[in-house]
Amino acid sequence: MSPDRGAELSDAELVDRVLRGEQELYAQLVERYQGVLYRHALGMVGSPDAAADLVQDSFVKGYTSLDRCQDPARFGAWVFRILRNRALDYLKDRRRKNVPLEEGAAQVPSRDDPATDLERAELGRAVSIALRSLPEAQREAFLLKHVDGRSYEEMAEMLGGSVSALKMRVMRAREALQAMLSPSEEHPKV
Questions:
Q1: Domain range for 118
Q2: Residue 134, phi then psi, degrees to nearest 5
């Protein structure tokens, strides 16, 4: 029995087969969701290593408690909630408040002129710093909407909030980011 035989199966079918003893099929679920979970975790915690650890920990927790997944067809949303809780716990830990933001700021140089590369890197750092300064709920909603491309309905299901509340969080996050990233009139760009 090879793990690739689950490639065409739905989440519900995979969960059912894993629970019936075909544990190797869990790798299919991991493959489906690890990218989106990692991007979300990275946006929330700002550290590639911490994000990878949180995703791995979430998949382990998902595997060990798979029998408690009440709606196997919604495995992705269920494991996302596990990750979300882990990321929020990580952020609450006072010892980790000083995560360097530059860890994720390294960029591959382009073939353009070095000044353009420097400008892009500086903009990336500024955006990272601005995102990290948002309240966690606003940052999470903003990332889900504008990085992951989720609909407000999907976000409401994933986060357990109302669509209108999530629209307000995204709007406030967008306004805050615009205020932080807009050039100040007091300090004109030279």
A1: 113-183
A2: -70, 150
